[in-house]
Specification:
With 223 residues, this protein is of the alpha/beta class. It has helices at 15-20, 24-38, 62-74, 90-97, 114-145, 153-185, 191-200, 213-222; strands at residues 4-12, 40-49, 77-80, 103-105.
Length: 223
């Protein structure tokens, strides 16, 4: 039986990438894997090939506008492989949310709500601004003094943050694995069945959301 409909959207930033297919095939495969794992049917895939600046405006994204229209018609979500395929601008993403068409990011999983998408976009935007400011300052200092200045704190902080997130995920996986084993012994054989059983028991994912096949697979991979 076919799963719930899902509209795919892929984007490349230059006409050269569009002609060569660089990036498009990887995005398509990521969306197809996501749909299959989560029980969706990818009914259509819209591909955007853009050039130059100013693409963070819906009128410069006719394929995205078409994807939104089709999603409204089918009453389903629009899926992208990664958040930056929608945009790297948090205001643009906020504007998209006003269209009342839900978005799904395959990389983040199906249980990430709009608030989290805004948060990811805002963090990425802030980090880009910080990197840009520091790069300009380093170049100016290099030109004036003849030496290049860098900021080692940001990479170290990012590394610590990643390590902390990984440790929390590992701990959560260690806590939930015995429950998954018990569910399997009770007769559950598929990832979907395990996810349903975890949800029925009121157990949440590390982010506090519902379990899906992909989130169960991630926990088992950590084992």
């Amino acid at each position: 039986m076919a799963g719930k409909a899902l509209i795919g959207y892929a984007r490349v930033s230059t006409s050269q990438q569009g002609r060569s297919g660089l990036g498009l095939e990887a995005q398509k495969q990521a969306l197809e894997r996501f749909a299959e794992a989560e029980g969706f049917t990818l009914t259509r895939l819209f591909v955007e090939i853009e050039t130059g600046k100013g693409s963070d405006a819906l009128e410069r994204r006719p394929q995205l506008a078409a994807a939104l229209s089709e999603a409204r018609r089918q009453r389903c979500s629009v899926a992208v492989a990664k958040l930056d395929r929608l945009s790297r601008d948090v205001h643009f993403i906020s504007g998209l949310m006003a269209h009342r068409v839900p978005f799904v990011v395959a990389e983040l999983g199906p249980d990430v709500d709009p608030f989290i998408l805004h948060l990811f976009a805002a963090l990425a935007e802030k980090e880009r601004a910080m990197i840009s400011t520091r790069t300009k300052a380093a170049l100016a200092a290099a030109k004036e003094r003849g030496v290049a200045l860098g900021n080692p704190k940001l990479p170290r902080a990012r590394k610590r943050a990643v390590a902390s997130i990984k440790a929390l995920a590992d701990q959560h996986a260690a806590n939930v694995l015995p429950v998954i084993r018990e569910i399997r012994r009770a007769g559950a054989t598929s990832l979907h069945q395990i996810a349903d059983a975890l949800n029925a028991r009121g157990i949440t994912t590390p982010r506090g959301g519902r379990w899906y096949a992909s989130s169960v697979r991630n926990v088992l991979a950590r084992a």
